[in-house]
Amino acid sequence: MATAQPITAKQVFTDLDHFVAFGMGSGLIRPAPGTWGTISGLLVFVLLVNYLSPVVAAAIMIVLTVYGTWCAHRSAIKMRVHDYGGIVIDEWVGIWITLAVVEPTALNLVVGFVLFRIFDIAKPWPIGWIDRHVSGGIGIMIDDMVAGIFSAAVLFFAVDLGWL
């Protein structure tokens, strides 16, 4: 795909694909839309796990992961760019994966957030390879999902070993 077409807040809030892909608009926040997207995804996680049963919360996250992949793909096509920085549904899913393995205490949320941002930004192997070689909605999502898995593993063992 070529250069991204400029996108406005009006487009994001009036197009369901953009609205979901942009994390209900959180991907419009500058600077660092990925960080803001992760924060908004973390807040959604906290709301889901604190106010819904674990089964319902997990079902919503799974459905939104699948639907978000579709929306990210369609949003990228509409903007004519593979992985526009404002598409942050992948950050939502990545932070959900990170936090799914521990109790949602304040310390675990903060450490999980930091770990996820480190893995998402640094993109160690295979995350960076996936980011460069997998396209479409799956390509947008999968590198952040793997970053979430790496972050979850580190967070889980830190908690399990009593470091947190």
UniProtKB/TrEMBL annotation:
One of its GO terms (molecular function) is metal ion binding. Pfam families: PgpA. One of its GO terms (cellular component) is plasma membrane. The chain crosses the membrane at residues 51-72, 93-118, 138-159. Its cofactor is Mg(2+). Keywords: Cell inner membrane, Cell membrane, Hydrolase, Lipid degradation, Lipid metabolism, Magnesium, Membrane, Metal-binding, Phospholipid degradation, Phospholipid metabolism, Transmembrane, Transmembrane helix. It comes from the Bacteria. It is found in: Cell inner membrane. Its EC number is 3.1.3.27. It is a multi-pass membrane protein. It catalyses: a 1,2-diacyl-sn-glycero-3-phospho-(1'-sn-glycero-3'-phosphate) + H2O = a 1,2-diacyl-sn-glycero-3-phospho-(1'-sn-glycerol) + phosphate. The keyword Amino-acid biosynthesis does not apply. Pathway: Phospholipid metabolism; phosphatidylglycerol biosynthesis; phosphatidylglycerol from CDP-diacylglycerol: step 2/2. CDD domains: PgpA (cd06971). GO terms for biological process: phosphatidylglycerol biosynthetic process; phospholipid catabolic process. Residues 20-158 form the YutG/PgpA domain. Lipid phosphatase which dephosphorylates phosphatidylglycerophosphate (PGP) to phosphatidylglycerol (PG). This is Phosphatidylglycerophosphatase A. It comes from Umboniibacter marinipuniceus. The lineage of its organism: Bacteria, Pseudomonadati, Pseudomonadota, Gammaproteobacteria, Cellvibrionales.
